[in-house]
Specification:
By secondary structure, the protein is α/β, with parallel strands linked by helices. Helix content is 43%, strand content 15%. The protein has seven helices and seven strands, in the order βαββαβαβαβαααβ. It has helices at 20-31, 61-75, 98-126, 147-167, 184-189, 192-201, 210-221; strands at 11-15, 35-40, 52-55, 80-83, 129-134, 171-178, 231-235. Strands 3-2-1-4-5-6-7 form a seven-stranded parallel sheet, with helices on both faces. Strand 1 (11-15), helix 1 (20-31) and strand 2 form a beta-alpha-beta unit. Helix 1 crosses helix 7 (210-221), helix 2 runs parallel beside helix 3 and helix 3 (98-126) runs parallel beside helix 4. The longest helix has 29 residues, at 98-126. The structure holds nicotinamide-adenine-dinucleotide.
């Protein structure tokens, strides 16, 4: 992978790349030769990970800015920034505590804003770059017990459309919206029986592997996606086509 604008090794930032989808995405970009930085509050679960870990809490705008500007100064710029860090909690809407909702929005929505602002300023000034994020099919369809999560992902999709209009033609934005993906997040919330029941509802009859989400990010960051901005790429095994969503 070579950045077309500069003809140099691309620099890719990914939040939440110590686990799951982010980890697989970091691996995908690293294997193509990119220089990849993992901005996560925790060190990588897999010590052999190919990205350079920088401790970063995406809810802290000053910390995100300092880490992003530090990498840009060291590397001479940023080509792609992927806001992927996120959490989800299964809870009934009528029982949700305001502090829990606020915490989720801080990570899932403000976390995207914080990365996109810091990296977006650098890209806009440089004249090129791509801002990506992990949304969810839940941003487009209702799903019970995750209403705060779903609202956060709908917010990410709205952000993606509006930021695309402000930053074009210099900077592109896009989201990948996964359906069910077999990651630590998913395993922590679903029993084996629940996973099997979910698989029955997915037209492709299985969860996605994290590498399949990573492939979508790799496409959106590439020159092959040069005329795509403000859009989501749904990777859900056909679920949303039937009008349902995952978590
Ligand atoms: P995961 O729990 O495996 O990984 C999430 C990572 O985010 C972890 O490494 C964690 O340390 C990091 N993180 C959490 N809060 C952070 C913070 N404040 N600052 C920095 N890092 C933080 O989860 P995953 O399943 O890989 O999810 C990744 C993204 O994909 C999330 O945005 C999630 O909402 C989205 N998603 C997941 C699924 C799924 O089925 N797993 C489906 C749709 C969307």
């Amino acid at each position: 992978m070579t950045d077309t604008a500069t003809n140099q090794t691309p620099v890719v930032l990914i939040t939440g790349a110590s686990s799951g989808i982010g980890e697989a995405t970091a691996q995908r970009f690293s294997s193509s030769g990119a220089r990849v930085f993992n901005l996560d509050r925790q060190p990588p679960a897999n010590a052999s990970g190919s990205a350079q870990w920088r401790e970063c809490d995406v809810t802290d705008p000053a910390m995100v800015r300092s880490v992003v500007e530090g990498i840009a100064a060291e590397e001479g710029g940023i080509d792609t920034a992927i806001a992927n860090a996120g959490i989800s909690t299964r809870h009934a809407f009528l029982e949700m505590k305001p502090e829990d909702i606020r915490r989720l929005l801080e990570i899932n929505l403000f976390g995207v804003i914080n990365l996109w602002q810091s990296a977006g300023r650098i890209m806009f000034e440089a004249g090129s770059g791509t801002l990506l994020a992990t949304a969810s099919t839940n941003g487009s369809a209702g799903y019970p017990w995750y209403s705060d999560y779903n609202a956060s992902k709908a917010g990410v999709l709205a952000l993606c459309r509006s930021v695309a209009l402000e930053l074009a033609p210099r900077v592109r934005t896009a989201c990948v919206s996964p359906g069910y993906v077999l990651t630590p997040m998913q395993r922590s919330e679903y029993t084996d029986d629940m996973l099997a029941e979910v698989n029955e509802r997915i037209p492709m009859r299985r969860h996605a592997d994290p590498t399949e989400i990573a492939d979508a990010f790799f496409f959106l960051a590439s020159d092959n996606a040069r005329f795509i901005t403000g859009q989501q790429l749904v990777v859900d095994g056909g679920e949303l086509a039937g009008g349902t969503a995952s978590s």
